[in-house]
Amino acid sequence: MAFKRAFVVFFLFSMFYTFIMCETEDMDKEKTKIGKDVLDYTESDMYRLAEQWDENDEEFDPEDYDDNDPRKPPPKQEGGFDPSQFKDDPMAMLKLSKKGKTVMIFVQVVVKFDKKEADELTQRWHNSLFNAQYQIQRLHILPN
Fold first, then answer.
1. Where do the H-state alpha helices sit in the chain?
2. pLDDT, tens digit (0-9, with 9 covering 90-100), for 69-87
3. Contact 76/103 with Cβ under 8 angstroms?
4. pLDDT of 3 above 80
5. Does residue 74 contact residue 100 with C-beta atoms inside 8 Å?
6. Residues 6 or more apart from 93 whose CB is under 8 A from it?
């Protein structure tokens, strides 16, 4: 009787051990597929990978985006842009025509500075505009 019991326990243990080893081999195979070197991919691997990306790719849904998105340009006026309505105020015309777009501005200084003083002055302007949430780049065109 003890022999039968020991045999059954040994048999169950060996079955359990075999099952566990098969599972770990499958996991190892999956891990090697993930860690495969890109240079070792074949054409069929690349094709399968592209299909997986297409399956997981979500379709563009315009409802997901907010109408009040600040990056979205404002709608165009029906009558178009009329510069004649801004005869006295060129800054208002600039604000309206370039709203939401990148503007290039050049600054000319009347007083002649040496290179170090000009660099300090433009650095102050740069810091002030940066603190006001403007993205700017400063470039010195002329040495004087």
1. 2-34, 43-56, 90-97, 115-131
2. 666 666 666 666 666 777 7
3. no
4. no
5. yes
6. 83, 86
